[in-house]
Amino acid sequence: QVQLVESGGGLVQPGGSLRLSCAASGSFNRIETMGWYRQAPGKQRELVAAITSGGSTNSADSVKGRFTISRDNAKNTVHLQMNSLKPEDTAVYYCNAAILYGGHWSPYWGQGTQVTVSS
Questions:
Q1: Strand partners, 79
Q2: 38: Cβ–Cβ under 8 A, 6 or more apart, which residues?
Q3: How far apart are CA 40 and CA 104, in angstroms?
Q4: What percent of the chain has pLDDT over 90?
């Protein structure tokens, strides 16, 4: 069974920083793309940033220059460094990973971590 466990959310003032982390555990063969999505109240879940096993990244225009995604393949972890946070970044952030297990690729999701940007 594969699990993704997030940590690092919380309350921060506008302009502040937070670092989210996600660790994959369990039985699997390989992890390809890992990423972060977010969902604000009343809105659809959207991609924030993603990174492949080779280190290629992409991110939403709204976070470019402020958020940085990184991963440690040896530890099966992905991180999201969020700087210059804005109130509109408030959302539940979800870790996502494409994982190979038993010959099949499947998407896995973490339980979500709340990020609130408010003064």
A1: 21, 70
A2: 45, 46, 48, 89, 91, 92, 93, 94, 115
A3: 31
A4: 97
* β partners of residue 34: 51, 97
Q: Check: CB of residue 69 under 8 Å from CB of residue 96.
A: no
Alpha carbon separation from 60 to 10, 30, 72, 101, 112 (Å, rounded)? 21, 25, 21, 29, 19
Residue 67: left (phi > 0), alpha (psi -120 to 50), or beta?
beta
Taking residues 31-45, what's their average pLDDT?
Answer: 97
Task: Please list, residue by residue across 77-109, b when 16 or more beta carbons sit within 10 angstroms of its beta carbon and e when fewer do.
Answer: bbbbbbeebeeebbbbbbbbbbbebeeeeeebe
- Distances in Å between the Cα of 110 and the Cα atoms of 25, 51, 86, 95, 97 are 11, 16, 23, 5, 9
Query: How far apart are alpha carbons 9 and 7 in whole angstroms?
Result: 6
Share of the chain above pLDDT 70, in %: 100
Q: How confident is the model at residue 1 (pLDDT cuts 50, 70, 90)?
A: confident
